[in-house]
Amino acid sequence: MPIRLEGYTDADWAGYKADRRSTSGFVFSLGIGAISWSSKKQPIVALSSTEAEYRGAVVAACEAVWLKRILKDLGVPIKDPTTLYCDKLSNIYLARNPVFHARTKHIEVQYHFNRERVLAGDVELLHMTTNLQTVDILTKALGTDKLWQFTTDLVLTIPNMPSLRGSTEETTHYTRIPELRNSA
Predict the structure, then answer these.
(1) Given 7, 33, 113, 144, which residue has the most CB atoms within 10 angstroms?
(2) Threshold 0.70, pTM exceeds
(3) Packing angle between helix 113-120 and helix 89-96, nearest 10 degrees?
(4) Gap between the Cα atoms of 31 and 21, Å rounded
(5) Which residues, listed in sequence order, are joined to residue 30 by a DSSP beta bridge?
(6) How buried is 27 (Cβ within 10 angstroms: 0-12 exposed, 13-18 middle, 19+ buried)?
(7) What angle do CA 171, 173, 176 make, to 5 degrees?
């Protein structure tokens, strides 16, 4: 079974009260574990939620291209397009549709990188509902239930990891972040 590189991207439009800049974030997983993530304040004010989401998706698409190149150099080529999940349908439509729209004229030309990557087959943007958007943990203030749900979703699980307890037996260890919650 081929290894799949998948990503999640989201943005919190105008989330900073002082300057109304947005926060965008992404998480990439390879197989069962998260391998790359980022949460960053956008450098300019986005004039719409679509622009904020699109700018965030551009950063994620750049990361996807970089990760695929690194994996290829390491001898693990990923042939399929990288799936990039986002919760803004207008972001997906903008990336897939090569027709220029007057309502998106304010988005700088450099941010049409996503459109080029989608048309070239390097990245595939797919919709994910907001309530399942794991990367919200990097872009928004969340309630306790969502915080723990998304934390659990992002936990790295490494089967058959060697134990540092001196045992020579092969055992399976998992990182269980929810246990930390109960001990606090």
Answers:
(1) 7
(2) yes
(3) 70
(4) 33
(5) 5, 33
(6) buried
(7) 160
**Strand partners of residue 23:** 12, 41
Q: Is the CB of residue 163 less than 8 Å from the CB of residue 151?
A: no
pLDDT (tens digit per residue) in 9-61: 999 999 999 999 999 999 999 988 899 999 999 999 998 998 999 999 999 99
DSSP 60-88: HHHHHHHHHHHHHHTT----SPEEEEES-
Strands (E), the chain: 5-12, 23-30, 33-41, 82-86, 123-127, 157-158, 173-174
Specify the pairing of strand 5-12 against strand 23-30.
antiparallel
Instruction: Give the whole-angstrom CA distance, residue 75 versus residue 77.
Output: 6
In a 10 Å sphere around its CB, with 0-12 CB exposed, 13-18 middle and 19+ buried, how is residue 24 labelled? Answer: buried
